[in-house]
Known about the structure:
Layout: E1 4-7, E2 13-20, E3 25-33, H1 36-53, E4 57-66, H2 73-86, E5 91-95, H3 100-113, E6 118-122, H4 125-139
Parallel strand pairs: 3-4, 4-5, 5-6
Antiparallel strand pairs: 1-2, 2-3
Amino acid sequence: MDQQQYTNSFGKVYLTVQYDPANQWLYNDWQGLLSTDTVVQGCEGVLRALEATNCAYILNDNRGVIGSWNQANDWIEQHWMPQALAAGLTRFAHVVAPGIFGQSSAEAMHQRVGTRFEMCLFQDIEAARNWLLLARKNAEPA
């Protein structure tokens, strides 16, 4: 799977989705202000990538996100999560956006995940990468 980019109505890239074959995860790089529509369109793209790669891990990078995306959490919980689980998602490492609004949105999503899949919030991308690498290592047959 090649890198996929999603643009908003102004032609600005708000999401880049890329499969990392060496680490066997999807890397999602979100940028800017996110409307409900852009979150939905981007998440649908992530689902297509999950299905195409049969990938169990996501590294979701929100360091470039500005503001809240709480308005999309209902849709994420009701539509995206069941489809992501059906596509094989087991672990979701989420690097939170700087600032209280992005962190609040991530915490609200984390509460909605419950026990459906493992989700962990990180301030640092290296910690998120290490968490996924450890999970992959532990999942490999001895």
